[in-house]
Design goal:
The structure is a homodimer of 234-residue chains. Helix content of chain A is 57%, strand content 0%. Chain A has 2 domains: 57 residues, Arc Repressor Mutant, subunit A (Orthogonal Bundle); 123 residues, Orthogonal Bundle (Tetracycline Repressor, domain 2). Chain A is mostly helical and 234 residues long. Chain A contains 10 helices and no strands. The first copy, chain A, is elongated and about 65 Å long. In chain A, helix 6 crosses helix 7. The interface between A and B is large, with 45 and 44 residues. The structure holds a DNA duplex (30 and 30 nucleotides). Chains A, B: This is TetR/AcrR family transcriptional regulator. Chains A, B: Keywords: DNA-binding, Transcription, Transcription regulation. Chains A, B: InterPro entries: DNA-bd_HTH_TetR-type_CS, Homeodomain-like_sf, HTH-type_TetR-like_transc_reg, HTH_TetR, Tet_transcr_reg_TetR-rel_C_sf, TetR_C.
Chain lengths: 234, 234
DNA sequence: TATATACGGAACTTGCCAGTTTCGGATACC
DNA sequence: GGTATCCGAAACTGGCAAGTTCCGTATATA
């Protein structure tokens, strides 16, 4: 049951020393990799690392178990790869909303697609929680695919607010950037309650904005400042 | 699967009123229950639910595996019982510090013994994270032994600050009470960094107090207002 | 002291799952 | 078309852990 933590040469076999081999026969269909990794993410989100079996992943991806082992040497490395592949999806710290106010930016991040993506990432994280402490590779994958992208987005939004003079320059950006990630994770994984738009607005208006010295709008909280309807997406 | 979450001797000394069978022979030594449950908590904190084996618990408690199964019908119910037994230890919402200021109260909660206790509870929670969503009994045990006591303590401290007019009456106590629990859990379990006095002070002064409209003390943050030396305990 | 029960330890049974092998069929290169 | 390789399916192996049974011993009641 221990995680295989070998750092592997992934698929690159022994290099033919002299002649380019110019392989023969059917080629490995690497487009299936994504299907398998997606299936693994699904299963991880539902039953966690120890509940996941290679048969489940193979079945979900309509693949054979042997195909999985042809591509990854062990369950542990498949999972690390699957988590790492989540990095490219979702948040993009280079294309953030810029509404002119911190609250506007934070609220603009709340889109159905983004909320759903964050929800899945949190569930995957929860399913891997008890393994994190014993697998540095997995911890690193989770950090760089889930934790850091989200923290980085927040740091940029707060830094912009500092740069435009909206909030104090000496506020603890590093700590405040973790407020929403921490609270949503706790809410979803520990108390098992939904992380929806209302809850995110409550964090923004009840904790984050007051913490940086801003007053949330007075009226019905969160009702306004929703520039897009519920069906609007990216 | 019947739920047996009794934390004390179920077959108490109450004698059957009429036909008391007056059992014969050696009696079950219920003082061992606590040893076994403590061993289970230790193992859970170290390797999580799926990593924990009944042999490990028995070995740690210097008991036989059969003794465990004489007292609990399954691993799952032993774990639920072990978590439920954590409820009585640590926080006591009826004997909270009362320093006259919210910050004083929050800082007074930071004692080596309390930090250590919270740390262990968080690790246990992390080890059970992926099981919570599929075991309502376990979710309930965690909630009432770990989540609620901590939230209740915070709610009381904030409510007292409201009552004495120190902070606004309309602040979102329910949400703010979850800030520190959420952030410490994330810090310890996800980012794997220590939850020590400095980090707790950073949360108090960098997030919680500003969020309720209070200014933390200006100077070296957290250095003062530590009325007791590092060796002082409860 | 006699008896009924609990105890720790160890052997045992059972089932599951990681990982391997085998096989008939599909597919891309030559 | 020939062939080497990949594919999915299924059978198989081996180890590990949940749960059970048995045994020699300890201990509380009568």
């Amino acid at each position: 049951m221990p995680l295989e933590t070998t750092t592997t040469a992934p698929d690159a076999a022994v290099p033919a020393p002299d002649a380019a081999p110019a392989r023969l026969g059917r080629r490995r269909d690497h487009s299936r990799d994504a299907d398998i990794l997606d299936a693994a993410i699904e299963v991880l989100a539902e039953v966690g690392y120890d509940g996941m079996t290679m048969e489940m992943v193979a079945g979900r991806a309509k693949a054979g178990k042997a195909t999985l082992y042809r591509r990854w040497p062990s369950k542990g490395e498949l999972v690390v790869d699957a988590v790492a592949c989540m990095k490219s999806k979702g948040l993009d710290a280079d294309h953030l909303p810029d509404t002119g106010t911190l609250r506007g930016d934070l609220v603009a991040m709340i889109k159905p697609r983004a909320v759903e993506d964050a929800d899945r990432k949190l569930r995957v994280m929860g399913g891997l929680m008890s393994v994190i402490s014993r697998s540095p590779e997995l911890a690193e994958a989770i950090s760089s695919a889930i934790v850091e992208p989200r923290a980085e987005v927040n740091r940029r939004l707060f830094q912009r607010a500092i740069d435009r003079g909206e909030i104090a320059a000496d506020c603890d950006v590093a700590t405040i950037s973790m407020v929403a990630p921490s609270m949503t994770a706790y809410r979803l994984l520990v108390t098992q309650r939904p992380v929806d738009r209302d809850y995110l607005i409550a964090i923004i208006d009840g904790v984050v904005l007051p913490a940086v010295g801003l007053k949330p709008p007075a009226g019905d909280p969160g009702a306004q400042a929703a520039p897009l309807g519920p069906l609007a997406d990216d």
